[in-house]
Amino acid sequence: MINLHRSIHALTLITLLLTGTGRSNGQSVVQSADESAVRGSMAAYADAFNRGDATALAELWTEQGEDISHTGYILRGREAIAEAFGKYFTKHQGASIEVAVQSISFPQEGIAVDVGTSTLSTPGSKTPVDGSYSAIHVKEDGRWSLLRVVQGPPMPPSNYRHLKSLEWMVG
To answer: Which DSSP state fits 157?
Structure first.
C-alpha cells in the first residue's frame, strides 16, 4: 500500500511538472515561450554589443525603434541606432556590457515590458558603470523586437568590489 501511495504521488508530481504545474490553459505556456524569447533577445543584444556589431544590434529594434538615454537624448529608427552605436564602437573598441533581466511582464498580447540592469565596461576605465533600463518589446512576424529602450541614470559605483576580500569577517 505504501509503494502504491508513493507511485501515485510520484506520478502526480511528474504530471504536474510536464504539464506546467497545473496551468489551466495554454496562455502560461505561450507566455513562458515568449518570456524565453524576450530573454534571448536581450542576450543577443549583449552579444552584438560585445562584438561591436552595430548592424546586428540595430536589427534587434523595430524599424521605428527608439533608444532613449538617461539624459533624454532619443535615437529614432534603426538607421540612427546603427549609426550611433557604430560611432560608439569606433571610439570605445573593446567595450562590453552585461545585461540582467529583472522582470518581464506582458500587458497585452504581442507586447512585453522588460526591466533590468546593465553593467558597461570600457577599456581604460577602472570601474564599470552600472545602470538600469526599461524596454518595450513587440512581437512582429513571430519575432520579438525592441520598440523602445529607456536607460536609467548610472548607479553610483558599489564598494563591494573593494570590500569583497573582507567578506569572511561577516558572521
So the answer is: P
